[in-house]
Write a structure and sequence with these properties.
Largest sheet: 16 strands, antiparallel
Helix content: 25-40%
Number of helices: 7
Shape: elongated
Number of strands: 18
Radius of gyration: 36 Å
Length: about 375
């Protein structure tokens, strides 16, 4: 190594002075370039970004401090019940968003559908919902509405008298999905949304339209299958045998009296071969179906469960309805029949022995009191 260096020195010494100066300048320039690339330039870039990064860190720190202060403020507030939170959220929605928002609640979750809502009003609503209703956003979806699906939703709303609404529809008329919402009808503020989405598929067939309906929450045993046959002045609807499970809280959206009762539990719907003949505004039912309400509870009673009940529908020239109690502290019974397109029903509700006190308020709402019973009559 030393011999090689000595050879380079001798070669360098034999070069003319001008060439030695040029070579030294090139080596110096190369050394300066290396120093700039690997030492000075990175330091300057870091220094240049330091101001921006410091400002961003300061903003993050301020945001964290604001969140911490908000968390302390929320923690210091008294605990809010579900009903009170829903009222506060409803008030904030009406005040901040007005007609641009539609609110529906199911359990401890609420869904807000926005149409052309101003950004400033939305920001104010989010802040007020978080502070007054203890509500935080979990999911947001943006989409365009399809004309055909809008028409389908309007048709369903009209046919149900405004009691059933299709929201956030996606796909097409033939195959799509939407959120299903139950309401008390036109002008009603009572709303309850089906958890998850409702999926449908329509398939034209010889003389009939075959429909398949499935809900993420409520059809664990398979889709509900129907066949719709148009007829002069009406239609024939055939429902295949099926089993589905629905939350009783959906009934709240239908308005009186369910919005007062605030029922919770599970509704098991069993359809045996069932058909509906609709002609000139009249409906003829053939076959049977049953609705079993399991472990039903109500906000009007402190009992964790009122009981389990079954409603049996039997078709025929005059379709009939029968209500019976399977178990529980609240006893319900009754029967009814369709006549002239209207249901006439008579029944009664009573408390099991020793359960009169916790069921007193509920019985007062169910119907007219007669002794220890409440009469259920409608026609």
């Amino acid at each position: 190594m030393s011999a090689t260096l000595e050879s380079w020195r001798e070669s360098f010494a034999r070069l003319p002075a001008a060439r030695r100066r040029v070579l030294l300048a090139a080596v110096l320039a190369l050394a300066l370039a290396v120093l700039w690339l690997f030492a000075v330039a990175p330091a300057l870039r870091t220094l240049k970004r330091a101001g921006t990064q410091r400002a961003a860190l300061q903003r993050q720190a301020q945001h964290m401090q604001q969140l911490a202060a908000e968390a302390r403020q929320l923690a210091a507030l008294p605990r809010m019940g579900q009903q009170e939170a829903q009222r506060a959220l409803q008030q904030a929605t009406q005040q901040r968003l007005g007609a641009a928002a539609r609110l529906s609640a199911a359990g401890d979750r609420a869904t807000v559908t926005l149409t052309d809502a101003p950004a400033a009003a939305l920001a104010e609503w989010l802040a007020e919902a978080r502070l007054n209703a203890r509500a935080v956003p979990l999911e947001a979806r943006l989409q365009r509405s399809a004309g055909a699906l809008t028409w389908l939703g309007a048709l369903l709303s009209h046919a149900s008298g405004g009691a059933v609404q299709l929201l956030d529809a996606e796909g097409s008329v033939w195959r799509g999905s939407a959120r299903l919402e139950f309401t008390g009808g036109a002008g009603s503020r009572d709303r309850a949304a089906l958890p998850g989405r409702l999926h449908w598929r329509l398939t034209p067939g010889p003389g009939a339209l075959h429909a398949s309906v499935q809900a993420q929450c409520c059809t664990p045993h398979g889709a509900i299958a129907l066949a719709i046959t148009p007829r002069w002045g009406g239609a024939h609807i055939a429902v295949r045998e099926g089993h589905s499970e629905w939350p009783a809280a959906l009934l709240t959206g239908l308005g009186t009296p369910f919005n007062t009762l605030q029922l919770h539990g599970t509704l098991l719907l069993l359809t045996q071969p069932l058909s509906l003949d609709i002609a000139q505004g009249r409906v003829r039912v053939e076959g049977s179906a049953s609705l079993t309400a399991q472990r039903i509870s109500s906000r009007l009673s402190p009992l964790p469960a009122l009981g389990s009940y079954r409603v049996q529908l039997a078709g025929g020239a005059a379709p009939s309805l029968r209500l019976q109690t399977l178990e529980g502290a609240l006893h319900l019974s009754g029967s009814g029949q369709w006549s002239g397109g209207r249901l006439r029903f008579a029944g009664e509700a009573s408390a099991a022995e020793g359960m009169e006190a916790p069921l007193a308020n509920l019985l007062n709402v169910i119907g007219q009191r007669r002794g220890n019973k409440a009469l259920i009559n409608f026609s």
